[in-house]
Amino acid sequence: MPLFVKVRSFLRNLISTRGVEADLDQEVHSHLEMLIEENIRAGLPPNEAQRAARIELGGIEQLKEQVREELVGNWLRSVFSDCRYGIRQLRKNRGFTAVAVLTLALGIGSTTSVFSLINAVLIRSLPYGEPERLVYLWSPNPRFQLPVEYLSPMNADFFELQKQNHSLGSLALFGPARFNVASEGRADALGGARVTGEFFKTMGVTPELGRTVDEEDDQPGREQVVVISHRLWEVQFGATLNILGRALLVDAKPYRIVGVMPARFAFPHATDAMDAAKVSDIWIPWAMTPEQKANRNEGAGNAIGRLRQGVSLGQAQAEMSALMTKIDALRPSKDQGFGALVRPFVASVTGGSRRELLLLMGAVAFLMLIVCSNVASLVMARAEGKAYEMGVRVALGASRSRLIRQLLTESFLLVVGGGLLGCSLAFVSSRLLMRLDPGNIPRLEEASLDTTVLFFAVGLSALTGLLFGLFPSLSASRCHPAAVLNYSGNRSVRGGRSRFRAGLIVAQVALTVVLLIGSGLLIRSLQRVYSVDKGFEAHSTVTMHFSLDARYSQPERQTAFYRGLLDKLTALPGVQAAGAVSNLPFGHGETLSWLTVEGSPFDEKIFFQTRSVSPHYFSAMGIHLFEGRYFTDDDAASRPLVAIVNRSFAEKYFRGQEVLGKRFHFVDGSPTPTWYRIVGVVADIRHSSLEESPRLQAYLPFWQGSTTDASIVIRTNASPDSLASAVRKGVNAIDPALALGDMSTMDQLVAEATAGRRFHTLLLSVFAGAALLLALVGLYALLVSSVQQRTAELGIRMALGAQQAHLLSLVLGDGMKLVLIGLSIGLVASRALTRFVARVLYGVSSTDPATFFTVALLYVCISLAACWIPAHRATRVDPIIALRYD
Amino acid sequence: MNSEPTTLLQGTLDLLILKSLVVGEMHGLGISRRIQQITGGTFVVKPGSLFPALHRMEEEGWISSFWGDSKNNRRAKYYRLTSPGRKQLEVETKRWGRISWAIAQALEAS
Asked: What percent helix, strand, coil does chain A show, rounded to 5?
């Protein structure tokens, strides 16, 4: 049984290594002695006999090594011994090992955590069936200069398209909304959506329990069913299994729970659609009346469809455009111009954050390159010190491949250490990243170290090990024992290698400068964003949201509710002012209207932000009044219609004229215009982003209009938490079915609006800082070892009368030469590369000279400090000792 | 003169070792001298080739080893053919026959 024999030999070689070795040693020696005897018998004198025998045998150690290489399982044995040897070596050089492992951990850790974000957001598939076949359907109209995702198909257009098209297997509407959900005596404001019957089929998801909303449900009169999220099921109902059929009050109407969705399904998220809450928890059927379905001037929902198998995006687009041309012709010619646009769903979901994430990945790739070059440089420096050892080993019969393997093993040990530490680092940092969740990156909260990420980390580590391990190993193993042993030191072979190490330093400096400039530009942008004049006072405010249900369809009832609520709130201790507003700034909602201003022609390209506000809204928000007056309680339904405009509005239409008393009316298709008289001018305020300049804004009195959904702003020094229970009690006294939602402060809302920018600025700065640290360590280590190698030369210079200052400048010059070359390359590269970040900059040019200059100056100063220590050490060289050195 | 032919023709050394052990058990030096003798001095196998080959063949199970005393009362490691070794010898002999016939044919062809 040859296999059995092999296994036996393998085990013997592995287990009784010592016995095998002793056996081999004895065999070789007895062979040698027999050779000597033979020679003596042949008549040679003993000396000669021994010499001839040794020549015939060759080197004893080489011979043994040759035999060992033939043994079964030799590779395993040599891997073991390499590892053992490697670990011993690394333990002997604690400083080197610590720096190398920490450097690698830093690189692998940051790259892995950025990758875990990318994996969660861009790679891991969405929790919808075949998401690549999902498409959004928009109905853009070039007459209005609005982003496409502002314009969904008008209801009548949508149902025509749904009936006539062949390229989409199903097409559904969903309308994100906030609901007051009450059960068992408590009311909560929850995000969710009204959906048409095809919605869940289109999304390709099946419920965890029960059924979804289907085509039977979206008829008026049959819509009292609700599907809830896994989260709601757990939080509200303790994940009880007899959930189906239970009652739930949604906006004060009874609904029956028919299904529970799986844990990962919470569509639409805040990043999926305007007006959507952070996640959705309930879905109810959208039962439109025939009149609503026939409305060609209103599109209330977002349209999402699923491509039929085998139909391409282009084909679907062509069909939809053709259909839409016919359908558009059905409306009066003055209203025409609506088209159809089919957009891939996945790209729409991830599109916004894609650029930022790739920017981070680019930055972290730079960092990883610096890590590799740094460790390679360290390993090479060490290999230079080991040249003598290598020479001895070659002389003793080690093959070159054996030496390379040995050196690579050491590199891999470093990588394993760095990789393990790096993964722990990534684990910690991905927890940290989640706490920094800027809210604008979809599914960031799902970032985790799953198998994909771990595979990535392992692959990255292996690649890193090869990259920094192979080259130094090759160059170190290319040694000529005679040359090395004769010099008995390490002077002969270093020219080429130090040049290579110097090249690595130059590259590191250049990469670091690019990162520093990139993060510098982002930091300056963030400063600009922070210093923007918001137009209101964000401090000392508490905000909340109310959404009134169908019982409040009459404006009088809405007014009564909000008046009663505001009176109660104003009476609370510590409250200075309380006001209501239809769309809170930074509250993710917006009303855009067309207005005609008296004396100016109507322009359909200009949209006005309009808001209904209660009298004390302006004082609660701290919005400055320039002219006229704020609203008062007398601006009620029965009184003349009034309005307040912002400064931009006043300057655009009434520059140099009296503003107060001027009028405008809405363009809403009604035959007789309803005029509003301007009674005040207030400051411009930023409404949805600090980075967009304010639009033309108009405010109308809350009491003169009709508003179901509104936010309340309270100016108070009390914290939201301390106010919450008093407010909740007040609301409960008025209407127990209404929930108080989105309790927050303006400070928080503004912080959320800048969170995305803060997030990538912070990460990029951390990477740049890490890169700077690594590059300095690399530079420092190179100079230290070069001073060490040049001790003899420095000694001679000193003995010949060189001044300390001269030696100092010699070493400093060596270091700074590399820094300056790297700096120039980095500056040139930055000029070319910062183009790619231009789109995420705000108020700063991508070639901002101040940033470039600051980074260059900073870099030179810090590098001087890093070079100073080794340079100073050079001046301390004692010529006597130096000349005796080696 | 030396082990060059074994590097030219893989397996030749194995064949010669197996063949030399047919007459009985032998230590390394004995095998080396035996090969020299039966090839009329054409091949001198150096220890650097012999020992790795012996250890490899032992692990293949073709030969087995034991410690014994030489003629001059010296401890030496002896090798002997096993039955798989005999089978291997047949296989190698046939293979060699085919190769040498083929080479001869090739050389005769004009």
From this structure: 55, 15, 30
B48 inside 8 A of chain A by CB: yes
* Host H or E run for residue A254: strand A253-260
Residues ≥6 apart with Cβ < 8 Å to A415 = A104, A461, A462, A464, A465, A469
Q: What distance in Å separates residue A50's CA from the closest CA in chain B?
A: 16
Chain B CB contacts of A58 under 8 Å are: 46-48
Please report the pLDDT score of residue A511 as a whole number: 92
CB A687 within 8 A of CB A538: no
What string of H, E and C letters represents the secondary structure of A573-620?
CCEEEEEEECCCCCCCCCCEECEEECCCCCCCCCCEEEEEECCCHHHH
In the three-class reduction of DSSP (H, G, I as helix; E, B as strand; rest coil), residue A794 is classed as helix
- Residues 498-537, chain A, touching B (beta carbon < 8 A): none
Supply angle C-alpha A816, A822, A827, rounded to 5. 120
In chain A, what residues touch B29 (CB-CB under 8 Å)? 31, 34-35, 38
Closest CA in chain A for residue B88: A2
Name the residue with higher pLDDT: A242 or B110.
A242
Instruction: Name chain B contacts of A66, Cβ cutoff 8 Å.
Output: 48, 51-52
How far apart (Å, rounded) are the C-alpha atoms in residues A802 and A541? Answer: 71
Instruction: Compute the Cα dihedral for A340, A344, A345, A349 and give only its sign.
Output: negative
The torsion angle over the Cα atoms of residues A78, A82, A83 and A89, rounded to 10 degrees, is 160
- Window A:665-684, CB contacts with B under 8 Å: none
Residue numbers of A between 27 and 86 with CB closer than 8 Å to B: 27-28, 30-31, 33-35, 37-38, 56-58, 62-63, 66-67, 69-72
Chain A residues 680-709 with a CB less than 8 Å from chain B: none
CATH number at B88 reads 1.10.10.10
The encoded tokens of residue A659 equal 């503003």
Long-range contacts at B68-74 (CB < 8 A, ≥ 24 apart): B68/B25, B68/B27, B70/A34, B70/B27, B72/A37, B74/A30, B74/A33, B74/A34, B74/A37
Separation in Å, CA A21 to CA A18, A61, B14: 5, 12, 23
Residue ranges of chain A with pLDDT lower than 70? 1-3, 439-440, 442, 476-497, 883-886
For A72, the closest chain B residue by CA position comes to B59
Instruction: Please check whether residue A26 touches B, CB under 8 A.
Output: yes
On whether the CB atoms of residues A193 and A281 are closer than 8 A, the answer is no
Q: How far apart are CA A102 and CA A438, in angstroms?
A: 29
- Quickly state the pLDDT bin for B5 (edges 50, 70, 90): very low
Q: Which two tokens stand for residue A364?
A: 């972290």
Taking the Cβ of residue A23 and every Cβ of chain B, the question of whether any pair is shorter than 8 Å is answered with yes
Domain ranges of chain A: 2-72, 140-339, 354-531+753-884, 541-744
Q: Give A37-71 pLDDT, tens digit per residue.
A: 888 888 889 888 888 888 888 888 888 888 887 77
Average pLDDT, chain B: 83
- Residue B9: the pLDDT is 55
Cβ distance A53 to A35 under 8 Å?
A: yes
- Residues 6 or more apart whose Cβ sits within 8 Å of residue A606: A594, A696
Beta carbons of A549 and A737 less than 8 angstroms apart: yes
Chain-chain contact of B46 with A56 (C-beta, under 8 angstroms): yes
Place of tokens 């990139």: A518
* Chain B residue whose CA is closest to A41: B72
CB contact under 8 A, B60 and A5: yes
Q: According to the model, what pLDDT value does residue A481 have?
A: 66
Q: Tell if the CB–CB gap between A66 and B70 is shorter than 8 Å.
A: no
The nearest CA of chain A is from the CA of B87 a distance in Å of: 12
**Structural domain that includes position B74:** 4-108
Interchain proximity B75–A30, CB inside 8 Å: yes
Q: What is the ipTM of this complex?
A: 0.86
